[in-house]
Specification:
Elements lengths: L7 H18 L2 H18 L2 H18 L2 H18 L2 H18 L2 H18 L2 H17 L3 H17 L3 H16 L7 H14 L6
Length: 210
């Protein structure tokens, strides 16, 4: 119907939503094709914000595939557009996602820098939940770097926010992280460390979906 009435904006939005469905199903090729089709229409319309969102979503597909270089390039394109628009929320999201790519690569220094940059923007926006989530990530990185005291301080700060927001799942998760860090060598491994190790092992064996 949107094609019949010439609603390009609506068609682009529908393609974008369809892509999300295929992404949820795990059909990465189909999702990527639909995002690219949507992107072409958004470029035709000159919709910069829509393009930024599409780049971000496409980056997520490549990240899931294990193509981190392509994912990072697309996140950077998304970031540049959000900066051009002055969209602080979008910029914070792109920085957070880029940090995740560097984290997967094992580049803790670069990941930490990007999380901290994202954190500054979230504080500027007053995004309390986003701040708590990012604090938990930053805390885990400090723990992996051996700075347990700094890690615990950040995790406690994150925990206080999630408790105040009455978010039980997140609260329980951060408590587990605190216990792992406080336990030191005898405690359970950090979920972040375990996840990164698992990702690297899957990559070495060629299991990109995992």
């Amino acid at each position: 119907l949107k094609e019949k009435i010439g609603d390009i904006q609506g068609k682009a939005a529908s393609l974008h939503e369809m892509a999300r469905v295929f992404l949820t199903r795990g059909d990465l090729d189909r999702a990527l094709a639909l995002y690219q089709e949507s992107l072409q229409l958004l470029e035709q319309l000159g919709d910069v914000k829509g393009k930024a969102a599409s780049f971000h979503q496409m980056a997520g597909v490549f990240r899931t595939r294990g193509d981190l270089d392509r994912a990072l390039a697309l996140y950077q394109e998304s970031l540049q557009l959000y900066e051009q628009l002055g969209d602080i929320q979008g910029k914070a999201a792109s920085l957070h996602a880029m940090a995740g790519v560097f984290l997967t690569r094992g580049d803790l220094v670069r990941a930490l820098a990007l999380y901290q940059e994202s954190l500054q923007l979230l504080e500027q926006l007053g995004d309390v939940q986003g701040k708590a989530t990012t604090l938990a990530m930053v805390g885990q990185i400090h723990a992996l770097q051996g700075d347990d005291s700094r890690a615990l301080a950040l995790l406690q700060e994150s925990l206080a926010v999630f408790e105040r927001l009455a978010m039980p799942r997140e609260t329980a998760r951060v408590r587990e992280l605190i216990a792992a860090v406080a336990g030191g060598a005898s405690g359970a491994p950090l979920p972040l460390a375990a996840a990164v190790a698992s990702a690297r092992g899957a990559a070495r064996s060629g299991d990109l979906p995992a």
